Structure formats: structure tokens, C-alpha cells
Amino acid sequence: MVVWLLRRRKSEMGLCGGRSIVSSCRAVVLPRFGGPEVFQVRDDVSVPDLKPQQVLVRTRAVSINPLDSRMREGYGRSLFQALLPLVMGRDISGEVAAVGSSVHSLTVGQQVFGSLHPTAIRGTYSDFAILPQDQLALKPPQLSHYEASAIPFAALTAWRALNATAKILEGQRVLVIGGGGAVGFSAIQLAVSAGCHVSTTCGSQSVGRALEAGAEQAVDYTTQDCETAIKGHFDAVLDTIGVQETERIGIQLLKRGGHYMTLQGETAKLADIYGLAVGIPMATAILLKKQMQYRYSHGIEYSWTYMRADAEGLDEIRRLSEIGKFRIPVEKTFPIAQVREAHEAKDKGKVPGKVVLEFD
Ligand SMILES: NC(=O)c1ccc[n+]([C@@H]2O[C@H](COP(=O)([O-])OP(=O)(O)OC[C@H]3O[C@@H](n4cnc5c(N)ncnc54)[C@H](OP(=O)(O)O)[C@@H]3O)[C@@H](O)[C@H]2O)c1
């Protein structure tokens, strides 16, 4: 069925209103939580009808985020267990195959990229994925699909921390702990583009890339003592590692009134252990306690920051990519049929950077 559809002319593909042009397609399905071996590539996974604001995307590439691997292992089970089997994946780059009745910003045949929310139910590891129109933007033309698919989830995570939480301003000082990863490298580029002075910690292989992207200082955490090497105090610290040690250092290096933001919030973890009804209020109480403690002891704002879809953010990220001021390097690509091998390579740390799955 999919082969037949792909042979249809693009103009024909847009004439389906709210009904999806496909009723089923190939997708990577997670029938139970576990290692990469649990993935199944199935040919008959249903494609729901489009809601008015939704877009059907013919997938060309999806990137693997740490969230995908953690979800595969059971992170978020308080929400996702009852919904198994799941289609995995957040990031996507592809082509608009059909649009819902209220979609006016995109048309069939356009090349787009975007990302689903962390809690979205049907993911993007699928020949056809469905996303709300405001979670997609036109793909920067000079980027291939696999390059574009590496960007949205990580970049929007950094965007939310810097722009929605810390509300960074030109001239401010920003510290990115973990500038070698996709979110950290995104944060360096976004903060530099906003006119901030950026310092970062990263592995030796990432130092050159961080400096090239405009960081004023890149401290190699594998050979240097970050605490003594980083000079001065910061308006915002984005901690992508979020362990006790990085939190302690990040807090010490903030100015009064500055923002410490960690990506390792505990809401999902506590909900998985204690259930949604107990875990979420418990997480809220822990967060409030830490916020009050740090406000009192250091005069700083403390937050757990999460990726959220953001149309304005995605548009700015697209603009920066188009003018060559934003990119996320892709280390390796795999065909979607080798999704198990790709996840295994990430799990075992065989590929340090971004891994992308390509669709034929
Ligand atoms: N809360 C959310 O909504 C959200 C969203 C996205 C990601 N995350 C989480 O944020 C983390 C980063 O995500 P990502 O996509 O950027 O992952 P990633 O691309 O896999 O990056 C991880 C990087 O962390 C660096 N690193 C490890 N230990 C370090 C240390 N002690 N100091 C400095 N850098 C260190 C390594 O960089 P080097 O190569 O430089 O050593 C590694 O490449 C993951 O844990 C992910 O689950 C959370």
C-alpha cells in the first residue's frame, strides 16, 4: 500500500481532507519495555485520521534522542505502560503528505522538520507520522533530511530553558554544563546568537567545536577541574548532566538572581515509582522545597526544565540554521530497518554523537 502511495503524484496526495491518505504503514513498534531487541518493525501499523490542526508527514529521517532509549527501557511507564504497543520517536524530517482541514500554514509536498512533545502517544519511527501543525516548520533547504532531523527536540529543549525560563538577554553570561551533547551544543549556539557570553564544560573532543560555535571558554571536564577553571559568575546555568556534583558547581557559579536549570527533573521518575497520583505531587513538593532552599541560601532561581514544542522557537531555530548559525552534527546514520543496531550502538556508547534513522 505504501509503495503504491509513494508512486502517486504529490497533488493527488493532498486531496483527502481530514481522512488520512493511508490507513496503515510500516512503523517501529515497542511491544514491551526492554533492550533494543524488543523493537519490532511492522508493516501494518494503523495511521489514525487527521484532526483539523494535524499534518501527515511522509518520514525521511528521525533522530534518536536519549529520551527514546529511556522510554524503550521503561522511563515514563506510569503514562506509557497502558498504551503499549507504542510507536517510538520524537524528532522528524520529511515531506507533507496531507493536511487537516484547519491547516493553512503548510501544503502537500513541502519539506518540513519538527518534534513531538515528550508525552506524545504516537511517535515518529514510522513511514507516516502525525504532528500538530505548530510542531512543524519548513526544513532549512540547505540541510538534508537526516541533518534536519537531528535538530528539533534537542534545540527546543535548550530554547525553552534559555528563552522561556531564564529569559536570557544580550550581554548576559551563560554557562552550559555538558556543551558536547546535542542539547548543550544547541544551548551554546542559541545563547551566542542572542548576544550572550558563553562558557561550557565538555569532553576533549568537543572543545574545538564549542569554541568554533562562539563559546568564550570551553573547559574539558575529563582533564580539568571545572570549579577552578571557570571564572566569574553567570546569569544562567543550563546543566544537561544534572548530577549532584554538576548541580553544586552550577549553583556556586551563579550571580544572585541567576537561574539554575537542570534537564534531570524527577517528575517522571517519581511517577514511575509511586504512580501518577502520588509521584507528581511528591515531585512538586521536592521541587518547591529545593526552590525555596536555594532562594534562601544563594538568592537564585532553581528549575527542572523540560522540552516543550514551541512554534516561535522552532521558527527561530530554522532561521538560524538557514543563515548557518545553528547545526547539530550527525555522527552516524542507520536505515530504519536497523533500528535495533542503532539503539544498541547508542546504548553501548559506540557512537558518541547524534544517530539518525533514515527511511527509504
Ligand atoms: N528534560 C528534558 O525535557 C530533556 C530533553 C532533552 C534531553 N534531556 C536529557 O538531557 C541529557 C542530554 O541530552 P542530549 O540529547 O544532549 O544527549 P547527548 O547528545 O547524548 O549528550 C550527552 C553528552 O553529555 C556529555 N557529558 C557527559 N558527562 C559530562 C560531564 N560530567 N560534564 C560535561 N559533559 C558531560 C558528553 O559530551 P562530551 O562528548 O563532550 O563528553 C555527551 O556527549 C540526557 O540525559 C537527556 O535524557 C532532557
TrEMBL record:
GO molecular function, one term: oxidoreductase activity
Protein name in UniProt: Oxidoreductase
Residue ranges constituting the Enoyl reductase (ER) domain according to the UniProt record: 34-357
Pfam family, one: ADH_zinc_N_2
